[in-house]
Amino acid sequence: MLITIPDVLNKAGLEKINALLDQGQFKDGKLTAGWHAKLVKNNTQLTGRDSAAKQATAQLTNSLQRNATFSRATLLRRMRPLLFSRYNPGMEYGSHVDDAIMGSDRGFRTDISFTVFLNDPESYEGGELIMDSPIGEQKFKLPAGSAIIYPSTTLHRVAPVTKGVRQVAVSWIQSLVRSAEKREIIYDIDQTRRTLFERDGKSREFDLLTKTHANLLRLWSEP
Ligand SMILES: O=C(O)CCC(=O)C(=O)O
Ligand SMILES: [Fe+2]
Questions:
Q1: Engineered SS bond to 112: which of 37, 71, 173, 222, CB 3.0-4.6 Å?
Q2: 7 C-alpha vs ligand 1 centroid, how far in Å?
Q3: What percentage of the chain has pLDDT greater than the value 90?
Q4: Element containing residue 131 per DSSP (H, E)
Q5: Is 93 in the pocket of ligand 1 (CB under 6 A)?
Q6: Helix or strand or coil: residue 151?
């Protein structure tokens, strides 16, 4: 399931994060890529070691975790530290799949990848996040403050930036539910029971769907 989430950050939140990033020391993005992704990764990044990045990470992580759509769609168990990337003209990230396992102890399974767009799409050319799919490529260039979450199983790339600067935050999630298909079923039931609740209050139908939602989570979630 691929979902876009508007307004993860409001204008004030965006301004604060971008001001913090302006103080950061962006380094070559190849430092955090796997051996095959390194071959096609050409961007700059701020990692958690940078103090500006630490503050930006705390703020954006908080905004993501408070976002209802983000939490319902990801069924977040844990998240890798955010990486802030800046693509200057000529930079791109060619086709790759994200590493399945991350962390120095190799204890983190990536189920979901996401990008939070941090600057105005009108301010740069190119830089679309492009997903490979059986029906062709899907391109995303979202407004500043919006996020896209997608299964980490997907081949994807970032088109070359030809003008201006593309600034984003990216990270990975280990979900309570490993399978994207199962997460989608749980998400759909959750959305449906909430719509029912808004329409009719706590009806018998709402109760049964809530029971099914809870029981599927019990069946499919992993520690
Ligand atoms: O910049 C993006 O939107 C995605 C970056 C990416 O694919 C990655 O860091 O693995
Ligand atoms: Fe990626």
A1: 173
A2: 19
A3: 92
A4: strand 129-131
A5: yes
A6: strand
